Amino acid sequence: MSRRDEVVLRVPAKADYVALVRVVLAAAAAIDPDSRDDRIDDLRVAVSEAVTNAVEAHRAAGTDSRIEVRCVTEGNNVEVFVRDQGPGFDPDTVTALPEVDTPERLLFEHGLGLPLMHRLVDKTDIETSDDGTLVRLVIDTSTPPR
Amino acid sequence: MHVIGDLDVSTAPELRSRALTVIDDGWTNLLIDLTACAFMDSIGLGILIAILRRARSRGGDVEIQAPFDQQRRMFALCRLDSVFVVHAENLSETA
Question: What average pLDDT does this structure show over A84-109?
Fold first, then answer.
């Protein structure tokens, strides 16, 4: 039976700390010998997206409180929780990306993060309210990318 | 242009500023080389879109050198592999 480990980070809501979080979590997830490099890469990007969103949420809310990131590993199974205290948002209102052959595609400089998160990990849950947002990412690092 | 290091929320604004300055100075056809780019997320991709948009508005274009599978996968997942010309060769290995 795999051992369950947990890493918790509380970091300032600043862009400079996003790299620190993804490096620590990717290293924690890669401890399992069966983890695949490409899935660790996927996790690294998904974590970066979630933490970047949290940093921007804190900036929007004008709060200097910290962002909490919790990573729970049990063998190949990795769960990451990113909690912010921003103003929240409605994930259902995130616009789908236009088709690649339409001129409107080039207008989408922002809004790529959430769709990317969904595609990179096995499961994404988002709980959001006026008090903040909790993003949960779940990935089996031993399975090939989807 | 060569991107060295990570391309994320803390570094992408600098690339944006430098690239847009280059384009506004008249260099409207750019090759952005990601060979030394260890990491890129959607913020980095968004900046590349902004650079492409400015270049095309000046009659130019932007091509991407992305030798690593993960980089090209990012373009594909965001459906940008048909928007940019993406080269897979590693320039440092073929030189």
Answer: 67
Closest to B8 (Cβ–Cβ): which among A48, A110, A112?
Answer: A48
CATH superfamily of A4-140: Histidine kinase-like ATPase, C-terminal domain (3.30.565.10)
Contact B10 A38 (CB under 8 A): no
Q: Which of B11, B16, B42 to mutate to test the interface with A (most CBs of A within 10 A)?
A: B42
- B82 pLDDT tier (thresholds 50, 70, 90): confident
Closest CA to A82 of A124, A39, A40: A124
How many Å apart are CA B10 and CA A133, to the nearest integer?
A: 22
In this prediction the pTM is 0.90
Kindly identify which residue of chain B lies nearest to residue A118, measuring between CA atoms.
B77
Q: How far is A1 from chain B (nearest CA, A)?
A: 32
